[in-house]
Amino acid sequence: MTQQRRMSGAGRAMTKSFEGLRLNAYEDCAGVWTIGYGHTGADVIPNRTITEAEAEALLTDDLGAAEACVCKAVTVEITQGQFDALVDFCFNLGERRLLSSTLLRYVNAGNFIAAANQFGMWVHAAGRVQPGLVKRRQAEAEMFTRSIASCAGGNAAGG
Questions:
Q1: CB within 8 A of 54, min separation 6: which ones?
Q2: Which residues are catalytic?
Q3: What HEC string does 30-41 produce?
Q4: Which of 30, 50, 60 is CA-nearest to residue 122?
Q5: pTM of the model
Q6: Domains of the chain, with CATH numbers?
Q7: Residues facing 124 on adjacent strands
Q8: What are 107-145's pLDDT values in tens digits?
């Protein structure tokens, strides 16, 4: 994909629902300091507090980085639902994991069914399966596959 795309309102809502809003910095299950809607980084320190407007701005910036990553990494045409699912995945797990994933290789090969099956491989944090990640990956896979059900048969089957 050569042009910059944006996550849809439905995609953003999914990300927000899984992240939840926390206005005070906290350590997530992997020990990473987090604030707002899943924002991490050097600017997140213990005792930091933000407003809801600041959380929205951080989310917009963070999703922008994930959108840019997906736009750069995906070399085939994908639907908005597929894009949204990949942006949520990238936002949650980071660019490095998306870029090195079998999921991305299948997407770029046009094998969308195999790609959708890869979401479920990414459910561990701190060395354990996390029920919240299981639900999130299921939602991403559903968003990804729902959008290919109406596509021309060749794309859905990977050929």
A1: 36
A2: 19
A3: CCCEEEECCEEC
A4: 30
A5: 0.89
A6: 9-157 (1.10.530.40)
A7: 129
A8: 999 999 999 999 999 999 889 999 999 999 999 999 999
